Amino acid sequence: MTEASRSVLLVSGDEIARYGFGDGHPFGTDRHEAFMRELHNCGMDGRVLRASARPATREELEWFHAPAYVDLVRERSATGHGYLDAGDTPAFRGVYEAASSVVGGTLTAVEAVMTGKARRAFIPIAGLHHAAPERAAGFCVFNDCGVAVHYLRQRHQLQRIAYVDIDAHHGDGVFYAFEDDPDLLFADLHEDGRYLYPGTGHANETGAGQARGTKLNLPLPPGADDDEYHQAWARVEEYLLAGRPEFILLQCGADSLAGDPITHLRFSEAAHAHAAARLCAIADQLGHGRVVAMGGGGYNRRNLARAWTRVVESFLDNEEQLETAHREAS
Question: MF terms per GO, please (predicted)?
């Protein structure tokens, strides 16, 4: 392994692969394997550090979620009956443990970056950005993104954290939980809510209270491709450089790629590679280099496998460029 490889962590394994729903549900448990197979075929699985997810503690879950909701998930996890929302997110036996491991996996990635064990990290089954403090939503049981923000603040005393989202669906669970928090930088590039669940994320939603004007929602029309992505992405970079976050979280849902069965954007995998590379460059420019990416949505298996592999590839390429520059300077 090169020094660059030792700087990129992949959190994967059975603990998070179990998070998914049966009976032909779009979010099936085969998504993890689809990505890992592509990563292996591209020769990248041996170039990264590896870690398994741990279960999140009850305390960690309750940094974001209401105790009564955590109890509900635990109860329905034991029986495997019913839904955790209005009908998108069914309970199954062990859902509490699987969803808790997704949160714990994201926290494992965050902790590795914060302690210097890695500079970039990726976790494929994560980025469950629809879950709200008191309910599940849109295939998302616990909101690992929101818990990660609180973890960085509680355990590492960071305040200014950036959440960047290129999933086709608006990250409403994160947005509304931090809508009045001026220190949570929020940049979300998504399909216009007039055409796609959850129907939110309009351009005029810029924050509330003391945070009004501090959030960036960038809705795109159905059929928007890489050209529209790049136009919107330029605004994300300007926003992040002005905001100077201390840590960057990327939700890189692959349902924004052309051919997804439940969305209408038409990005290519190059958009995901570009987002990952540019966030690394921005984090380096800001002096800390901290980037954690979470897989998010994506229901065309080839699309998610390719998009997420390109994210990992961008992380590795960026680290190799840094290593080369350091070697030449010394």
Answer: histone deacetylase activity
Question: Which single residue is written with the structure tokens 């897989």?
Answer: 295
What CATH number belongs to 5-329? 3.40.800.20
pTM for this one? Answer: 0.97
Place of tokens 């859902």: 95
Q: What is the largest CA-CA distance in the chain?
A: 61
Listed in sequence order, the DSSP H helices in the chain are: 14-17, 31-41, 58-62, 67-79, 95-114, 144-156, 172-177, 226-243, 269-285, 301-329
* From 32, 65, 129, 130, the catalytic residue: 130
Specify whether 274 is catalytic: no
| pLDDT tens readout for residues 6-25 | 699 999 999 999 999 988 99
Question: What is the residue-wise DSSP string for 85-119?
Answer: SSSSSB--TTHHHHHHHHHHHHHHHHHHHHTTS-S
On whether the CB atoms of residues 253 and 166 are closer than 8 A, the answer is: yes
As given in the structure block, the two tokens for residue 244 are: 């100077």
For a pLDDT cut of 90, what percent of the chain falls above it? 94
Of 79, 193, 69, residue with least CA distance to 141: 69
